[in-house]
Design brief:
alpha+beta, about 30% helix, about 80 residues, single chain
Amino acid sequence: MTSTSLHSFTAKTQAGLEQVLADELTALGAKEVAVQKRAVAFEGDMETMVRANLWSRTAISILKEITRFDFDGKENFYEK
């Protein structure tokens, strides 16, 4: 797998394990790691995502951001 473009990901975890997960993801090669409430946001290539899925012991799931937009109301949300 050779993808060098960076993608945005969010790894979900149990409350209280956010810093443990952040350290784990950093060790697996994640960049721009940011602790959130019951989650850790990070950037990485697809190889990093695969490593996180295979080797993370504290992540419940890894989500890949597919789009980003401003929320202007229900109708706008469904259009997006």
